[in-house]
Structure formats: C-alpha cells, structure tokens
Design brief:
mainly alpha, 3 helices
C-alpha cells in the first residue's frame, strides 16, 4: 500500500513538473497563445492543479473500495 501511494505521489509531482504537458481545450489554447509564453504556462498549470482534486478523490475512493473488497473476501 505504501508503494502505491508513493508511486502515485511521484506520478502527480512529475505531471505538474512536466514542461510538455498540455491540458487546454482549443479555445483556451488560442487565448493562452495571445497572452504570451509566461501566462500560458501559468494557465496550463492552473488547469492541471484544478484537475488534481477530482482525480485524487476518485483515486482515493477507488483504493478504499478495493481494500474493503479485499478484506471482505
């Protein structure tokens, strides 16, 4: 269990540090291109930051469900 949590944390950190990750729709990409390189990076990081909470919550609930199912069987 500790390994899974550690690997998930490393994956999330690497996702936020990735320079080539793109999390923008086509409209957001056009807007970010007009703003310039610095604000576009901040915009992209903000989108990834906002995506972390729902994805983390889903992962947490899935792991808890898996542990409970494993204990009951």
């Amino acid at each position: 269990m500790k390994r899974i949590v550690l690997l998930t944390g490393i994956l999330m950190i690497s996702l936020f540090r990735a320079t080539q990750s793109f999390a923008q729709c086509s409209i957001c990409t056009k807007t970010a291109q007009q703003l310039g390189d610095g604000p576009a990076r901040g915009f992209n990081t903000g989108i990834l930051y906002l995506a972390f909470l729902p994805l983390g919550l889903i992962a947490f609930l899935g792991i808890r469900w898996w542990i409970n199912e494993r204990k009951s069987s």
